[in-house]
Automatic annotation (TrEMBL):
Region of interest (Disordered), ranges: 425-587
Stretches with biased composition (Basic residues): 577-587
InterPro entries: Kinase-like_dom_sf, NERD, Prot_kinase_dom
Protein name per its UniProtKB record: Protein kinase
Organism: Streptosporangium oxazolinicum
Pfam families assigned to the protein according to its UniProt record, in alphabetical order: NERD, Pkinase
Listed SUPFAM superfamilies: Protein kinase-like (PK-like)
Keywords: ATP-binding, Nucleotide-binding
Domain Protein kinase intervals: 189-463
Domain NERD: 10-121
Basic and acidic residues: compositionally biased ranges: 530-550
């Protein structure tokens, strides 16, 4: 059981678990301090746990982050959380500062090796570090004792036996450090968890101390030097306040992170930016996931939200200038939000922070015209970066240098891939604006209307001559075909069939298309039974859209019989003639 020699109150349950585990499971000769503040010049830094083992002094930072955590450069990308600066880099800096403090107190302590270790307490926490830069300094709760006991971690030139220096180490710490009595607090915001950061900014998750149980917020605490000269201090302040100035120019929007507050601490040694705590994960994680956790439709939704936020930002005269997958947050609901406005340009102004961009800019997403001159960043360069991000999200890889050389995507629509090529055109004037890109993307995603189905009328079979209907001589007679009689009695032009009631004359727009004298339209001695759809053009049928109507064939016109052509012999006369020829008798 390790001996606890001092310290303050643990901030959260994760720290309590680590302290209890070391107290109960570590060797008896180990010494333990927890929740202390170590002075560093005019500032202080906080240390969760310090362990004095038999061969080193180890500084420990406790993280309660859960799930998969991917390391990319100097940032960590956890699941369902916004990315934050690597705690390993910051902790190693604190370890060097502590080593310098011990050496100032006691010169012989220069031989003692000061180690640094980040402990992940989440049961399902998993660190993925392809470069291997941080993994050596990260362990979980189960492997903590074994890692601290590993003598091979001591670097060459340092002692592997701290027993002769134990008293000097405790005296140096007691004379320098002080216990932390309460969780860090910034204004009315009380810290729940430290997420990470670097030498410039530290990120925390916090709640409002005056409203217990309130929702959490994200705090970005920027360090400043209150004793610096006027000009460097003014430049530092402009850089610190830049994100807040940019976000206050942008009205609230569901696709842009929202700033709640910004204030200074006491002597302006720290500035605090309060942001919404968006529960999601950086788009970078979706780009490296295999297989992809997003369907093609969901990825297009993310691209659309990214463009929606970017169009809103540009409409309010703000340029992002550092757009990358680390600055696009995908929420648990599948919405995308723009973050990372530390280097944005909020409209025309007398000063610039573009000189800081080379230190943070990812060249894969920088437009060609800005590779060597970040100060030339414009809204067009934001569109270029969005095009690279969208291409990488839809295809799984970065685009080629020349837009015309890129391969076709088998999943995304051709119109979308063509739009991404135009977004990445090397000529800035040929790139569409963010608003135009958004409109083109929505148009490309819109389903096309179905082509109208054109029905071809079935061909009528020929009617045998012996079934053809001929005029009834009892009704029409020879005079029916006489033009003079037809002109005098127009009502008799329409043939009637004996033995059947006369149907009323067709009315309405379709009447002209009804021809009862068509020999192929009726059976012998029976009137034509017209179907309802034959009484008018298709555009007049109920339930039918005008764009689906077919052009109506013109009504058949009866041609007049030229003069001198004898009328056709009536049917009864022909029957009588045939009877006389067959029988030789009169009928």
């Amino acid at each position: 059981m390790a001996q606890i020699v001092g310290g303050g109150s643990p901030v959260n349950d994760a720290e309590r678990r680590v302290i209890a585990h070391l107290r109960d499971s570590a060797p008896d000769d180990w010494l333990l301090l927890h929740n202390i503040e170590v002075p560093r010049g005019d500032d202080t830094f906080e240390v969760d746990v310090i362990v004095l083992t038999g061969h080193s002094l180890c500084v420990i930072d406790v993280k309660g982050t859960r799930g998969r955590i991917e390391v990319a450069g100097t940032r960590w990308f956890p699941l369902r959380r916004e990315a934050f600066g690597s705690p390993v880099a910051k902790l190693r800096g604190n370890g060097r500062a502590l080593k310098g403090l011990l050496t100032q107190e006691r010169r012989e302590l220069d031989r003692v090796y000061v180690d640094s270790l980040v402990v992940l307490t989440g049961a399902d926490a998993e660190l993925v570090d392809p470069a291997g830069r941080d993994s050596r300094h990260v362990t979980d709760l189960a492997g903590l004792i074994g890692t601290l006991s590993d003598v091979s971690r001591v670097r060459r030139g340092h002692t592997t036996d701290t027993a002769p220096y134990g008293t000097a180490i405790i005296e140096a710490l007691n004379g320098s450090v002080r216990r932390s009595t309460a969780p860090p607090r910034f204004g009315s915001w009380e810290v729940e968890e430290q997420l990470g950061g670097d030498t410039r900014v530290t990120e925390y998750r916090a709640i409002n101390a005056t409203v217990p149980g309130s929702e959490t917020v994200l705090l970005r605490v920027y360090r400043a030097d209150p004793l610096a000269e006027e000009e460097p201090r003014a430049a530092e302040r402009r850089l610190i306040t830049n994100a807040y100035q940019a976000l206050t120019r942008i009205p609230p929007h569901p696709c842009v992170v929202r700033a709640r507050d910004f204030f200074a601490i006491d002597d302006e040694s720290r500035f605090v930016l309060v942001l919404d705590d968006v529960h999601g994960q950086a788009l970078h994680l979706h780009l490296t996931a295999s297989p992809s956790t997003l369907s093609t439709a969901a990825r297009l939704d993310v691209v659309e939200d990214m463009l929606l936020g970017l169009a809103h930002v540009h409409a309010n005269n703000v340029i992002h200038r550092a757009l990358s997958p680390a600055c696009v947050l995908v929420t648990e609901e599948g919405r995308a939000m723009l973050t990372g406005f530390d280097y944005a340009k909020p409209g025309p102004r007398a000063h610039t922070v573009a000189n800081e961009l080379p230190n943070v800019l990812d060249t894969h997403y920088a437009a060609p015209e800005c590779q060597a001159m970040p100060e030339r960043m414009t809204a067009a360069s934001d569109v270029y970066a969005a095009g690279v991000i969208a291409f990488q999200l839809l295809t799984g890889k970065l685009p080629p240098v020349t837009p015309d050389a890129e391969p076709a995507s088998g999943e995304a629509p051709v119109e979308v891939m063509d739009l991404l090529r135009r977004m990445r055109d090397h000529a800035t004037h040929k790139r569409p604006t963010a608003a135009e890109t958004l409109a083109d993307l929505r148009r490309a995603r819109r389903p096309r209307p179905a082509e109208p189905v054109r029905r071809v009328p079935a061909a009528q079979p020929p009617v045998p001559p012996h079934l053809a209907v001929r005029p009834d001589p009892a009704v029409s007679g020879p005079a029916a075909s006489d033009p003079a009689v037809s002109d005098a009695r127009p009502q008799d032009v329409r043939p009637r069939h004996t033995g059947h009631p006369q149907a009323p004359a067709p009315q309405g727009p379709g009447a002209a298309g009804v021809v009862t004298a068509n020999p192929g339209a009726t059976d012998i001695g029976r009137p034509v039974k017209h179907k309802p759809e034959e009484h008018g053009p298709e555009e007049h049928r109920p339930g039918r859209h005008p764009r689906d109507a077919r052009p109506q064939a013109p009504a058949r016109q009866e041609t007049a019989r030229p003069e001198g052509v004898p009328a056709r012999e009536p049917l009864i006369d022909r029957l009588r003639t045939r009877f006389r020829r067959i029988t030789g008798k009169q009928p």
